[in-house]
Amino acid sequence: MFMFSIKYMVIISKIVLLSILVSCEDNDNRSDFYTPTELKTETIFIEQNVSGVLERRPVIIQTESNINSSKLYPVVFGLHGNGGTNTGFLNRLKRFTDDGEFVGIYPQGIQRSWNLGSEASKADDVQFINLIIEELKKYQNLNMNKVYVIGNSNGSGMANKLGVETNHFKAIAPIVSQLMESMPLKSTTQPISVFQVNGALDPIIPINGGPGPGTHIFLDALQSAKLWANKFNCFEPQIRMIGEDTLYEFKNCDDGKEIRYLRIENGEHNVLNPFLINEIWNFFQRF
Description:
The chain is α/β, with parallel strands linked by helices.
């Protein structure tokens, strides 16, 4: 009986030891799987199936030179216009990324465009941005609760589309474009802050609405801002003049959001200057 007990205890001990070893091995594997990716300035590539072809789409990540390991950086996407490239935002946002105010994320549209329905690109660009967001979650030192997007021209339409169809972003800044008839707000559209800017003399995107590039029919720019505001139950706008320009501010929206619309009287299609970018960043930081 005594010998049997010893043998039994030895067997149990071996089983326990084996369980510990397996458990340690599993923990090591999990640790490797969840090791965050080092944050630095680089170009990454996102694979996406576009019309049956596997595309490797470049995305520039722009950071300050020396990453503060104790900091979580906000994230700002920059979406280029039709015919542009993702390098266009490198200099525009460099002073902010150099100072460590945020990390810039600059994706490249297929055939230099974002697919809003009649562009050269036939990619599902909402899916593309979703894939980028998932990849960014692997990086250490990124604050994925503070993600924003600036879009210029065709990129502005894409920023609106992302605001309508996703909930990744705390705020968006569509520059020289507004909502289109083909892009209605949805029942699933979540409250988001919007800083929309239009040039009154824009020869490409009609500020008063109507046909624009491709087959797009644009809404009146002020009507576009009001649709966002009505969707989120904002107060009536406060209107103030900034020189010759008019700023409409719809405040006290659902979830503390705000809709802002700036009409630049002498603005054409290229209004994204350093002063405006600074105003946009100040706006983003409040949300």
